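Please check the following for our workbook:

***
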Amino acid sequence: MIELISTNGAPTSTSLYSPATRFGELIFLSGQIPASPETGEIVGNDITAQTEQVFKNVMTVLDAAGSDLSHVLKATCFITDMINFSAFNEVYLSYFPNHKPARSTVAVKQLPRDVLVEIEVIAVKK
């Protein structure tokens, strides 16, 4: 049975999708952007600040789904400019210092609300 996951601690999504779904032990997060859960405004003007906010949002949704970063199996990362790849990786590494989930990083032309980064993850329940 598929369970829809939502939380007041992460930015609200449109009515088109859920922040996450859980099927058995597997948790699938929708892409998280650097929006403030309190205001909905985009946090930060550079890749570092935006990636930090994205990880806060990812952790909040994972928590609501009964998981955390140490249970992430796969991360798919979207950035708008590969010139930011090194700075993005520095922040990413601070959240995954020992646990190294599978990962893809793709440069895209544009992301919603003209943000610089979006991350989606697949995790397993704690």
About this structure: The first helix runs from residue 47 to 64.
